[in-house]
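Exercise 3.2. Students should predict the tertiary structure of the chain below and write it as structure tokens, then compare their answer with the key that follows.

Predict this chain's 3D structure.
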Amino acid sequence: MYHNWLRSFHAVAREGGFTAASKVLNIGQPTVTEQVKSLELTFGVELFHRRGRTVTLTDTGQQLLGFTQAIFGHEEEAVGFLTAARDLKHGRLKVGGVGSPVVMELVDHFQESYPDIQLNIFIAHGEEMLKSLIDFETDVAVLAHVADDPDLYYFPYVRSEVVLFVNTDHPWASRRQVRIGELAGQKFILREKTSTTRQTLEKGLAAAGVDLGDTLEINSREAVMEGIIRGLGIGAVSELEYVAHERLRAIRITDANIFISFYVVCLNSRRTRPLIQAFLKTAEGIAAINGTPPVQK
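Answer key:
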């Protein structure tokens, strides 16, 4: 009861009249007048001097305005804050992914359209990344493998070929391509068994009936690159994640269809949140340009 009365008083004081206040509050002018009158009668005070359609605050009304400004001023600020968030003029979005180059390309496009949105970037392995989505630690992620789960909303973002890379002293350094059968018996440096790139390569090798030679397993992308540079073996990486280096050469596998599909993923229950929805639309646009129509699931 008092809240409505005080709200009407505050609106009249701010707008300088009962009619203007009723328009701001979206209620009838008689209702505003009655609520202010009830406030004055209940407490035995005069809040406005009324001269025809003109009203001015009494000393008591002026002091009361200081209190209502603290109440409804914060309310106005809160509504303004929420309106700006709805219009994507500010906010924070937590973006995760399994591959820095793929994630950062998408982040770059998103920030071009929404420069006022603050982004937190989190790069991790697929299982850890998926858990962070489920635990609300990440809002949206780019993953290389997604299980069919009704709690998840996802679509293919981009497809990247798995390429090999060797150091400049390797016998294949001058070649741009090899056949998958030539990999038989070759020494490789691979990431851990949970690596999507490794799993994809091994699946392609198994389909072709090819067995590698000795394998050195390293759980760091940087360490794998250092090992290749030092000539400890051949490496494999998503083409989108390959970083050119003066001591490295990339080589394609010509007769095998070995690639990684990256998906943009969020919780199905959160897909309509304004920031997440804007990020998804940005990704869909890039996917269309890249020739990867977003088949949503």
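Discussion points: The radius of gyration is 31 Å. The chain has nine helices and twelve strands.
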